[in-house]
Amino acid sequence: MVRSFASPRHTCLSRRPMPSRMQRSPPWNGSTRRSRTAIDAPREERVTVKVAILGTRYRDLSIEEEILAPLGAEIVHGDGGSPEAIIEVAHGAGVILAGSGPRFDAGTLKQLEAGAIVRYGVGTESIDAAAAAALGMWVAYVPDYGTEAVAVHALTMALAAARRLQIADGTVKGGRWGIGDVRPLHLPSAQTAGVVGLGRIGRRSAELLAGVGYEVFGHDPFAETPGIRLGSLAEALAADVVTLHAPGREDGSPLIGRDEIALMSEGSVLVNTSRGSLIDTAALVEGLEQGRPAVAALDVFETEPPDVEVFATVLDRVILTPHMAWYSEESERDLRIKAATEAARILGGEAPLNVAATPGG
After folding, report:
1. Do residues 194 and 141 make contact, with C-beta atoms less than 8 angstroms apart?
2. Which residues are designated catalytic?
3. pLDDT tens, 76-117?
4. Fewer CB within 10 Å, N or C, the chain?
5. Which domains are present in the chain?
6. H-helix or E-strand containing 98?
């Protein structure tokens, strides 16, 4: 059953005991007697487990309901836009499924008295994982969705920027004609592409870039990728097109600052579909004003939504999209199935497959 938070109150398992990898843990109150779960209970005695879904804009929750309802889950949902909103909806939930918006700091987690959080997506920066573990909570995530969608979006942005489509569009809409505003343009077969980060998405992006003719080389200190020539970060940044697919740094510092921007080629393109924290935005704007890079195509930002006024002096040199690279109907469905399946594992007494925090860890 799916209910909005405005629905009547319902019975749920509060402070639900969470499983270790080998066995279910005792209840959080320290008792050695294990609580009955929705799975353990006979059909006529089955306990309703509260599952909260926060920070999504899905048209309906039928995918999650199909996977979780057989386990006794009753789904509530809300926007999770503030600590108060999170606690109001999700207090006592066996599992919380969360989008990127809700922020779970230590204080919020302590008041939640929930069992686990599963992120719709890869990043868990919005969750204090250490605090969650100390409170006996799992934190899980979905790392392997949207690979094709993000790689296609990165390629699309790279080609649009390389062809200066944002400038050509403004030329025609401004009542002008001709190609003078976009000169010089070059074919992919005459240019290089540097791919920074060679995980699933980086490797697929490299394949797509090579497929349209770019000479591709990559940079990843942790990867050995057959078929891709590897080089230093400086070598990657000197390419005609640079695409970023690296994870954010643990301390949140940018990978691309003023010194790195200075290494870029005049007339080059910089694409970021990975993490907003990878780029020092102020340094990027300064570089764009000097033509290094000539165009930046960004799907992620240091703060989302971004303050577009930051780009006021270089609006004709940027292509901006609203953190949509991951999205297609197919990738969204894949994400939701995998997130709900992780929640089902936890409710069923199993460890999730992709773990950012382990109870007591």
Report:
1. no
2. 275, 304, 323
3. 999 999 999 999 999 999 999 999 899 999 999 999 999 999
4. N
5. 2-145+330-357 (3.40.50.720), 147-320 (3.40.50.720)
6. strand 95-98
